[in-house]
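Encode chain A's predicted structure.
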Amino acid sequence: MKQDWIVRISYPAHDSYHRKSYLQRFLHTLDYGFGYGNGDTKMTDLTLYGTSLRRSGHYLDLAARVGRIDSDYEVTYGDGGDTGDFDNWAFSIGAEYGRKSSLGKDWYWEWQSQLTYSYVWGDSYTTANGARISQDNFDSLVGRLGLVLSREFNTDSAAPGRVYAKASLQHEFLGDSSERLYDGVIFYDSEDLDDTWYTVGFGANLKLSGNCDLYLDAERDFDAAIKNKYRFECGVRFEF
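Encoded structure for chain A:
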């Protein structure tokens, strides 16, 4: 099981009825475990968002993100195990288009389509035991089609809220990765992560004040090549 704890701070650059854009600093920490060890990943990035909203319920979201990923791990397999740490720079750009429609009595449904391209620069490093590892650059192109069913409440108050359930079909069009390990002999490892999987989840949003929002989101993947069955995300977003 993987757990994500996220804090988001937003800085609006423009705000109108039809369009919003803001810069966001994203602080992300992740602890994970695997069969013969464990690791820790921290990520900091800067994101530019743009959202276009229409009276008919149609919307278009655009996002560009650049960040740095700091990772370290410990392997307990073999004689004495080993430790290592490495850093990666990454960026992504994406677009999401959809429409939100009313079902009456504060119930809504929303269809979504999204395409996101990501690129991660590889790193070369040496482990504590002297093994040299070289990562190749990695890129990803993920398409998503989804549906969201939501219920809004207290819409006329200073603290409106929303709960929702969602389901998505996702496909990775790229996703090839490879790395080399030099430790007396050369080991080469590569993976083709071209894959199709399904995601279901639920969540909630609650406005705490005029510029502060609380959010919670949980997801589970099915039939994914990367085994990440559960994902939990919660945080507070501030806008200034």
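The mean pLDDT is 79.
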